[in-house]
């Protein structure tokens, strides 16, 4: 008799055969992502952010690296927005240049946030002759001169954005844009705060009159601009194709009947007092001429895109140098090697095996698990030279000299024989090693490896008079020099060395107590005619009531640096006399920081002279 249906339902199913572990592993379906077809890899990469591709996904394995490197179409429209937090951790300017290089001349759009300086713009102009869209947000490392030189290389440009780019807008630069880019249809030049200053000699409509030469504009945003009715009238009279106009927070514009009639043809109009709820950036309260704009509360310089990482207090914070990663029972050499190797292996593992936004790639194994099988192990000495170089470019130069650059022969060769790795040398953040390692000698070794191509040296407790003279002989093209807590540098040594840097654009001498007298800054002003940024910060303000001491000696020397755009003098003894001299002679100043300069009294005369300064930090402002 056949069994009933109920009995069949209750009958237990036969257990599957038990396979040995090896057989089970063989039967389990596995996938080798390196064997994905090229079109599948390309489809995945096209959905990712370009910074993520450069940092992770494009380094998974040889086939993925090839797809990320050799497909120009992937880089036709480059988007590097949304990575402001990486500015001090990665060379975003260099990554932007690499992205453009991979486009093989086909780049039509570049959007960058904190990613784009003077050199990059010139490179972009040479490599992207068909560029149609250029958006730069919070890019503080290029100026009117750089934009003027580069923009003439983009004759096909249709869209331009320069939002929160504080160092661009004068010297008739927008008139140059109008002439160089006859097809420009969309322009955005937005700020995060409106300033109502009544300074003689400052033309509020300088920018607007330049924009009026962009006759084919369809869309224009000038958020927080100081233009008046005169400038807006010029734009409306010359840009006859305008369809969208955003002048929110342009409070010098009075929408009278004449302007309303001219704006009648604009289909999308955002007048000065319109809502800012949909504005992309954080909006600061406007600063009015009849209010007290000099208090710390009203000078709202912070924004979603503002970097505070270079603030003065960083140099006095001992926690900056404590990371708690060293074992107490190791000597200093072993600790340094351990630190370099940890940084190296974390970066290698992340770059080659993990891509946070790409879930199909296996995550890196956690420490403490069983060691990988022979099939999974990797001999780092066999990595191709370009992969080793890519890893070393992401590491600290002190770590390279003491750890990562000593892994094996191939790694030592890559660290020693590639001058490009040492073009911009960063030795900040190692002050705690000053009494345990010869940082001066390490700095000299780093410069020697640059083979004469060094353009930037940043050293903390790493640099004495002898090193500066060596740097002068070996780095004739130096553009940036940051010396922090370099107590072995004297006025005499610095004066002799600085004359060897005629191309210098950026100079910092923070917490260097033996530099600043004997007219040394007059020598700097004469020797470095291209200097644009200078920082001279002290660790505290000391009041001296002595007739034998000229409290304005530093300032009168700085006044000879006529090309300055940015100046920081935190904790200086400068008085109104010295600040007057600086403001009268440094006519291009756009950023001025005189916090803790308590001898300065901000009277009406100084306030009027400071009206043209777009970023101003006053003596009593908090840090």
TrEMBL record:
Alphabetized SMART domains for the sequence: FBOX, LRR_CC
InterPro entries from the entry? Answer: F-box-like_dom_sf, F-box_dom, Leu-rich_rpt, Leu-rich_rpt_Cys-con_subtyp, LRR_dom_sf
Q: Which residues form the F-box domain?
A: 30-78, 377-425
In residue numbers, the region (Disordered) covers 1-27
- PANTHER family, per this entry? F-BOX DOMAIN CONTAINING PROTEIN, EXPRESSED, F-BOX DOMAIN-CONTAINING PROTEIN
What is the recorded name of this protein?
A: F-box domain-containing protein
Q: What is the species of this protein?
A: Lolium multiflorum (Italian ryegrass)
